C-alpha cells in the first residue's frame, strides 16, 4: 500500500465508491454467507445451528489514540475485540459488519490502512466481512463492528452457569496490555515535551504487542472442541479480571476465591509493573484489553485441562455469601472490587 | 418520563449501570431470541430460515440535528431506517442491536427519551433489542444499529433480479421527507435570527411527520405474503428515487423508463415544493429519507397489485443500452442522474 505522501480526498470517491474501494478485495469464504456487501442487508443461511451476535463501538480519543496506534493495528484490533466476544460464548465467529464514521481529516490511504488491518484479522479468524456503513462525522473516527457466530445450542456457554466447587480458569496472561498502554502514554508525553526524541521501546516488545496487536483465543475454543470440554461459564477479559469475575459471580449467583499465585502474569509485565510502581496483581485485576478467556469448569473435568499449555487454574467458585475474595501470596484474604475500564 | 429540569449525570450510573438502566424495560418477544442483552453476544436460533443482517451509523450533525429533532423521534427513526433495509430484502426484522456513543453533554433523561423512541419502534415493528454497546465520545452523538431479519431462501428479493419488461413500482409517496427537512432548516434559521419567534408549521403536519417520524413499509411486505407476490428486485428509498433506481439498474444490468406521471407525490409536498421554488419531481428523485419501497414485478403479476392502495406503477425496466430515462408530463425524455444524499 502506498506509504508516501499521496492523499486522495474521501470526497473524490463518494460514499458508495468509498465502500466499494475499501471492501472489493474481501472474499466471501463461508458457505453460510449467501449474500455479503452490495444489497440492503447481508443474508446468512444457518442450519440447525444457533446464531450468536455481538457488537462494539470504538471511538477515537476514548478507545484509541492515533498518536501511537497505527491504523492497520486499529483495524485488526477492532475485529479481535468483537470475535473475542463470540469465542467467549464458545461459538465460532463467521461474519462481521464494519461501520465507520470519519472526519475529512482522513484520506483514502489512511482508510486503506485501517481496512488492511481488518482484512488481516478476517483472514486470521476466518470471518467474512458482509456489510457495513460508511459516513462522515464532524470530528475524529468511530468504528462500529457487529460479529455474528455460530454454535450448537448445547455448546453455547453463558456467564450464568458457574456453581460452587467449579474451578476458575484463565487462558494466557493478564495485565500486559494495560502496561503496554502505560508505556505508549509515557512515550507520547515525552514526545510532546521533547519532539524528536525516539521512543524507548526496547525490551518491551511483548507488552506493547499485547496492547497494539492483541489476539482473540480462537485456539482455546478449538481446544475445547477437541478435548470435549464444556466450560460451565465463560467471559472474555476485556475490562480486567476483577470486573469479569464480578459479571460471572453476579449472573451465576455465586462467590469466588481467587488465588494470587494462580493469576498468570508475564515476566515482562511483572518487571514493567514494578518500574511503574504498580502492583502486578492490580494490573491483572484492573487493567483491560487482554482479550484472554475467563471460564469455570466442573471439578471432574480437571484432568482434561491440567496439562494444557496457557490454561491456568486460578481459584474456585464458592457460595455467594462468602463473597468475591483474593487469597494473596502472603496468605491474606482481601475483598476484590469490580473496577475495570470506566469509559464515562 | 421526567420532563422537568432533573439532570442525572451519565457518570453516576457507570457503563453497565447505564446500559441496564436504559434497556431493562425491553422485553424479549421473539421465540428465536434465546439470549438477548447480558452476555458477550446475543444468541438467535433460526431453523431452516435465512438470516438477514443490515447496519447503519447515524451521526449528529450529519444525519440529524438535535436543534429540531426530538430525541424520542430520533430513537424511533434510527430503528425505522434499519428495519426498512430488512423489509427491502422481503424479509421480516426480528432483532436489533443498538450502540451509542455520547458526549457528557447528554443526561440520563435525554438518553431515556432516545430509548423510549427505540422502544416504541421495537413495539411497532415487533423486533427484540438483543444487545449493543454504550460509550462516551468527545463530542456529539453517534448511533449504530444492526438489524437482523428472517426469510425463506426463495423469498428473499435482491437488487439484481429486474429484467426488461418488468414493471417499476413504488409504495407510498416521495419527496415529502426532504421537504419536511427544508421547512425545519428554514425555521431553525429564522429562530437563530429572531429568537423567540414561534415556528410556523401550520398545514405542514404531513410533510414534517414524514421527516421526523417516518415508518418502514412493514404493511407492504405483509401484503406481498398475503397476495403471494414475489417482486423481481427491491430496494428501500432512503437516498432518493434516482439513486435507488440506479442501484437496481446497475446490479440487474438493465435500463429503466420512469414515467413522471406515475411517481407518487403527496399534494402537500407538491404545494410545498412550489413554495420553495423546487420542481416536485426533483424532490422525489433526489430528496432522501422517504423509506418507501422501490420494486419491480413481472408483468404477469400486474393483476395482483393493480388495485392495491398506495402501490403505484411508475414505469418499466428496459434494455441497458436504452439508459435510465424520465418521461416527463410534457412528453420529453430526460436522462436521470444518480444523485441522492452525499454524506461526504
Description:
Two copies of one chain form a homodimer. With 344 residues, chain A is of the alpha+beta class. The first copy, chain A, folds into two domains: 10-155, PurM-like, N-terminal domain (60s Ribosomal Protein L30, Chain: A, 2-Layer Sandwich), CATH 3.30.1330.10; 167-335, PurM-like C-terminal domain (Phosphoribosyl-aminoimidazole Synthetase, Chain A, domain 2, Alpha-Beta Complex). In chain A, 33% of the residues lie in helices and 24% in strands. Chain A contains ten helices and 14 strands. In chain A, strands 9-11-8-12-10-13-14 form a seven-stranded mixed β-sheet, sandwiched between helices. In chain A, strands 3, 4, 5, 6 and 7 form a five-stranded mixed β-sheet that branches. A two-stranded antiparallel ribbon of chain A has the order 1-2. The model of chain A is unreliable at 340-344 (pLDDT under 50).
Summarize the structure.
2 copies of one chain form a homodimer. Chain A is an alpha+beta fold. Helix content of chain A is 33%, strand content 24%.
Amino acid at each position: 500500500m502506498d506509504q508516501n505522501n499521496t492523499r486522495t480526498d474521501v470526497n473524490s470517491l463518494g460514499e458508495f465508491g468509498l465502500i466499494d474501494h475499501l471492501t472489493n478485495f474481501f472474499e466471501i469464504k463461508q458457505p453460510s454467507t449467501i449474500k455479503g456487501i452490495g444489497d440492503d442487508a447481508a443474508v446468512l443461511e444457518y442450519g440447525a445451528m444457533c446464531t450468536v451476535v455481538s457488537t462494539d463501538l470504538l471511538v477515537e480519543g476514548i478507545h484509541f489514540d492515533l498518536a501511537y496506534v497505527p491504523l492497520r493495528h486499529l483495524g485488526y484490533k477492532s475485529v479481535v475485540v468483537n470475535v473475542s466476544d463470540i469465542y467467549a460464548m464458545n461459538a465460532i465467529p463467521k461474519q462481521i459488519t464494519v461501520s465507520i464514521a470519519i472526519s475529512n481529516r482522513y484520506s483514502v490511504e489512511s482508510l486503506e490502512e485501517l481496512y488492511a488491518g481488518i482484512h488481516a484479522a478476517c483472514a486470521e479468524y476466518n470471518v467474512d466481512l458482509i456489510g457495513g456503513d460508511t459516513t462522515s462525522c464532524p470530528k475524529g473516527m468511530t468504528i462500529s463492528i457487529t460479529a455474528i457466530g455460530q454454535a450448537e445450542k448445547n455448546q453455547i456457554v453463558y456467564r450464568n452457569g458457574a456453581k460452587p466447587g467449579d474451578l476458575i480458569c484463565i487462558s494466557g496472561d493478564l495485565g500486559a496490555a494495560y502496561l503496554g498502554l502505560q508505556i505508549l502514554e509515557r512515550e507520547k508525553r515525552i514526545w510532546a515535551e521533547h519532539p524528536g526524541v525516539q521512543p524507548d521501546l526496547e525490551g518491551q516488545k511483548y507488552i506493547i504487542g499485547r496492547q497494539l496487536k492483541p489476539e482473540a483465543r480462537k485456539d482455546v475454543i478449538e481446544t475445547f472442541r477437541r478435548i470435549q470440554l464444556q466450560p460451565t461459564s465463560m467471559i472474555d477479559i476485556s475490562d480486567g479480571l476483577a470486573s469479569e469475575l464480578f459479571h460471572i459471580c453476579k449472573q451465576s449467583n455465586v462467590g469466588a476465591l481467587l488465588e494470587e499465585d494462580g493469576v498468570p502474569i508475564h515476566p515482562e509485565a511483572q518487571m514493567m509493573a514494578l518500574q511503574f510502581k504498580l502492583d502486578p496483581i492490580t494490573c491483572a485485576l484492573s487493567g483491560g484489553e487482554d482479550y484472554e478467556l475467563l471460564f469455570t469448569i466442573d471439578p471432574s473435568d480437571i484432568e482434561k485441562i491440567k496439562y494444557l499449555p496457557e490454561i491456568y487454574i486460578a481459584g474456585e467458585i464458592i457460595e455467594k455469601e462468602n463473597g468475591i475474595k483474593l487469597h494473596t501470596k502472603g496468605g491474606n484474604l482481601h475483598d476484590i472490587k469490580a473496577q475495570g475500564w470506566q469509559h464515562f
